[in-house]
Design a protein that fits this description.
This protein has nine helices and eight strands. It has an eight-stranded mixed beta sheet, sandwiched between helices. Helix 3 packs across helix 9.
């Protein structure tokens, strides 16, 4: 067995049961993108293939032409929900609007593995795709944190160079406590995620777990950072955008006003503009020689 999957000090039986319930129920409970299917609904079902990683083979769902440059996407779900189809609406939109291939990654999550399994799997899949075609990486929420982690891993290992990173309402700091309040991402959820997926407190401040805490952000790809005014994770994205700029990285930082973590669903009118902007940047990044 993978030692990283077995490091679970501090996880209670109730934690494991809660995480298992989230993991199993995601396909029935996650509906946040149903009103955002603005394009790509006529695309066929994605094809599947399995890609080797250092933690076993990972299934990916591919939309669009197999030979096209690729946007590699990491779904959200607090590292506890393994359900890439939650972002099917986004994958279809990007594939149709940016006219690229979209690779939606079915990485493993808690409570069945712990950090850094998902981070490694996402890097290894993106590196494998980058060996075929130019790539952009991106994700929402915990998936945005994974995309930032992948870029740091790729830079440090010299494995590949993403053309762009798309960080949507990203979770970038697992070492710090969340502010108390009525936000969708609560301190109690953060505590559960820590105990289940980041059970070793010493690892939570590592750059690949908490990219915003990395000492050096130089040499990373350009970034689109999407934040929401009322999101308890807003500080993560705001700080990362600022630090990337200070490191000389080109950044587009877009703040959606008056919304919480589900920033696109809560304002679907503005979402059209936000989504079109991101798709345009993805298309341009992958079109350049």
């Amino acid at each position: 067995p993978n030692p990283a999957a077995l490091r679970t000090p501090g996880m209670r039986i109730s934690d494991r049961l809660s995480a298992m319930a989230m993991h199993a129920s995601a396909r029935f409970t996650v509906r946040y993108g149903d009103d955002l299917r603005f394009a790509g609904t006529d695309l066929p079902r994605p094809t599947r293939r399995r890609i080797p990683t250092r933690h076993g083979r990972v299934t990916v769902h591919e939309y669009g032409e197999a030979s096209a440059p690729a946007y590699v996407h990491f779904h959200g779900g607090a590292w506890l929900m393994r359900y890439p189809q939650m972002d099917d609406w986004w994958c279809r939109y990007v594939a149709a609007t940016a006219e690229v291939r979209v690779v939606n990654v079915d990485f493993r999550t808690g409570p069945y593995v712990a950090y850094p399994v998902a981070q490694h799997q996402c890097h290894d899949v993106a590196a494998a795709i980058a060996a075929e075609v130019p790539v952009v990486v991106g994700g929402f929420s915990s998936g945005g944190g994974l995309a930032a982690s992948v870029c740091l891993q790729a830079r440090d290992a010299g494995s590949f160079v993403p053309r762009l990173q798309v960080l949507g309402v990203p979770a970038l700091d697992l070492a710090s406590d969340l502010p108390r309040g009525a936000g969708m991402i609560s301190p109690s959820l953060r505590a559960l995620v820590r105990r289940v997926y980041f059970p070793d407190p010493a690892t939570r401040a590592e750059p690949y777990a908490s990219p915003v805490l990395a000492d050096d952000l130089s040499g990373l790809p350009p970034a689109i950072v999407l934040t929401a005014e009322r999101d308890t994770l807003r500080a993560d994205g705001d700080s990362y955008a600022r630090r990337l700029r200070e490191a000389g990285i080109e950044v587009v930082h877009d703040l959606t006003p008056r919304v919480d973590h589900y920033f696109l669903t809560e304002d679907p009118v503005r979402a059209r503009t936000t989504m079109a902007m991101v798709a345009g940047h993805v298309r341009d990044a992958l079109a350049c020689d």
